[in-house]
Amino acid sequence: MTALQEPQARAPVDTGAPRHSGRRQRHRWVLWTALSAAAVVFVYPFAWLVSASLKPRPEVFDNVLVPRHWAPENYATIWSAAPVFTWMVNSVVVALAAAAAVTVSSAIVAFGFAYFRFPGRNLLFASVIGTMMLPGAVTMIPTYLIWNELGLAATQVPLWASNLFGSAFYIFLIRQFFLGVPRELFEAARVDGAGYWRLFWRIAVPLCKPALIVAFVFELRASWSDLLKPLIYLRDPALFTMPRGMKSILDQFGQAGEAQWEVVLAGAVLTTVPMIIAFFLCQRYFVEGVATQGRKG
Amino acid sequence: MTVRRRETWAAYGFLSPWIVGFLVFLAGPMVASLVLSFTDYDVLTSTAFVGGENYRMLLADPKVRTSLANTMFYTVLHVPLTMAVALGLAMLLARAGRRSAGFFRTIFYLPTITPKVAVGVLFLLLFNGQIGLINEMLGWVGINGPDWTSDGPWIKPGLVLMSAWSLGSTVIIYLAALQNVPRDLYEAAEMDGASPWARFRAVTVPMISGALFFTLIINTISSLQTFDEVYTAFFGSANQQTYGNDAALFYVIYLFQQAFQFLHMGYASALAWLLFLIIVLITLVQVRLSRRFVYYESE
After folding, report:
1. Is the pLDDT of residue A197 over 70?
2. Where does the record locate the signal sequence feature (chain A) (predicted)?
3. Which of these, A156, A183, B151, B155, is most buried using a 10 Å CB contact count?
4. Could you tell me if A67 and A125 lie in one domain?
5. Does residue A177 lie within any of the structural domains?
């Protein structure tokens, strides 16, 4: 890639000659209409979800945006009907452990690839990249058997512990950032007698915090949302994460006949809102992470 | 010890977490699942070697055919739809000013961070045949919408439509690629009198073909492993029969049922390896095709 200079494509189009301005105005108007219409389509399901979760049962499906009668007691119902608070805490603990584990371990491995020159480096790094394509479904069963053998299959440990060994995408991402650190900084520290760990911890890590945050928030999201692993491992409802709990709420309250959809919806809101908050706190990092994902292609 | 030797040792020290993880959680399990696929292991009783029996069963199992067909059908619709809509949105964003592009990009990305469990619930309600929002809106233009969530043939098209809600990552990837297309290419094309469509075909598509290819592969691989939202909506509760809902039986759901509900670990391992082979095959075909279409600037 040679053309990485800041593209001018982002500049607004109003630099054209005056005789074009009528057409350009019209173009801008069309553009804004199209974008706004798309935005409504993307936001509306959220609005519908939150609104319906605050409606009394007969009105849940009236598809009116502002509830005619407010029913915040739906949240009280779900709070007393299911250990929602426990699930929330479980999810927060598991997601933080998973994110912290993968960030630290991936950073360590990334430094190994970024700083050192050693025999076998390219081959090993190619294998790291290769594992990115590996479907998780293939290793799902033996991994379960390992945790079963260790007596940890019914605990939350399998939900985060395999993250202690680094993960290909994050290793790749953080390595890119480490490679951008001027080598002289490391050489100078070496001359002053710093060990390799010091180079990593005192120079590379502080300079590449954004990359570490990207890895952290990405894994936080992935771990928070995961349903498959909790379904495989968690049996005791007291250990459930929020999505796993949400699934049991749906199975319990969303049955045909005596369906209490307003309770299910309140659960769905509670499952989603923490991620929305996390997103708005670290929006920049989410977007950066996705854009990097594309660039490796 | 020479500096070089010391460096090599230190390097492998830093790499050791990954090497251990690779052996214990990737390479080991891959081999183990291959071995398991030739046994009838069920965790509780002892293992018996059954040769190719699992693979013979798999070829004769109508559920395998159904779930594969369902998954392929979904993938063939979901991936192109996602790519086309995401490209359209990204091209709009690329024309908007920087600040408004950032704002809309955030909005398009929001659904991606919604847990898939919630997406599954939303699907059941928004697409409900009698009272859902989608059919109400279709009603405004005089269309009598189908029973998206209960009428077999309509379940997968409904899921495909719902999946388009979560295409924000693809939009961001395309936008980043579009912003790297040198502006003078468009100006040159315009001077030559190229129509907007010709500019799209001759400039935009080749210049972002790397991103298109990447999203094609990633979206295909993840689509073939669709689980969370479909399982949420159609499986697992007492009312839903364990073997029911064939129209929504996706491959990984069937694999999950075989492995963790019926404890047919050997059979499920064979299912997992079939999926692995299918994914490798499809990816190889896509890589081959991409040699013809992807334009790499450095070459």
Report:
1. yes
2. none
3. B155
4. no
5. yes
Question: Is the residue at A108 inside a domain?
Answer: yes
Nearest to A98 by CA among A169, A154, A172, A165: A165
Residues of A in contact with B15 (CB under 8 A): 109, 112-113, 124
User: Identity (one letter) of the amino acid at A26?
Assistant: R
Summarize pLDDT for B221-258 with one digit per residue, the tens. Answer: 999 999 999 999 988 765 554 444 688 999 999 999 99
Please indicate, yes or no, if residue A18 is contained in any of the structural domains.
no
Gap from B110 CA to chain A (nearest CA, Å): 7
Task: Say yes or no for a CB contact (<8 Å) between B179 and A35.
Answer: no
Cα–Cα distance, B292 to B64 (Å, whole number):
34
Other residues' Cβ atoms within 10 Å of the Cβ of residue A21 = 11
- In chain B, residues with a C-beta closer than 8 Å to the C-beta of A118 are 7-8, 11-12
Residue A263 is part of which domain span?
Answer: 81-295
List the Cα angle B198/B204/B208 in 5-degree steps: 150
Of A31, A148, A297, the CB nearest to B210: A297
- The closest CB to that of A225, out of B10, B109, B115, belongs to B115
Alpha carbon of residue B171 to chain centroid: 15
* One domain, residues A114 and A210: yes
Last residue of a domain, one of A76, A93, A110: A76
Query: Do A101 and A70 fall into the same domain?
Result: no
Asked if residue A150 and residue A64 are part of one domain, the reply reads no
- Rg of chain B taking only CA atoms, in angstroms: 24
Residue A121 forms part of a structural domain: yes
Per-residue model confidence (pLDDT) at position B5: 85
What average pLDDT does this structure show over B45-64? 90
The yes-or-no verdict on residue B298 having pLDDT over 90 is no
CB-nearest partner of A109 from B17, B131, B224: B17
Query: Which of A177-181, B94-98, B135-139 is predicted with the least confidence, judged by mean pLDDT?
Result: B94-98
B210 to chain A, minimum CA–CA distance in Å?
6
Domain boundary among A76, A109, A138: A76
Write down the pLDDT at residue A292. 74
| Same-domain check for residues A42 and A101 | no
Q: A108 and A237 share a domain? A: yes
- Cα separation, A181 vs A171, in Å, equals 16
Domains with residue ranges and CATH for chain B: 63-293 (1.10.3720.10)
Q: A interface mutation test: which of B112, B121, B134 has the most A CBs within 10 A?
A: B121
Are A123 and A256 members of one domain?
yes
**Cα gap B120→B97, rounded to integer Å:** 35
Q: Helix, strand, coil shares of chain A as percentages rounded to 5?
A: 75, 0, 25
Count structural domains, chain A.
Answer: 2
Mean predicted lDDT score pLDDT of chain A: 87
pLDDT tens string B206-224: 899 889 998 999 899 999 9
- Contact (CB<8Å) A271/B118: yes
A50 and A67 together in one domain: yes
Question: What's the mean pLDDT in A179-202?
Answer: 92
Q: If pLDDT is split at 50, 70 and 90, which confidence band does B293 have?
A: confident
B203 has pLDDT over 80: yes
**B14 to chain A, closest Cα gap in Å:** 5
Which residue from B128, B132, B232 is facing A227, i.e. has the nearest CB? Answer: B232
For residue A6, is pLDDT > 50?
no
Return the CATH number at A134: 1.10.3720.10
What span, in angstroms and rounded, lies between the C-alpha atoms of A266 and A288? 31
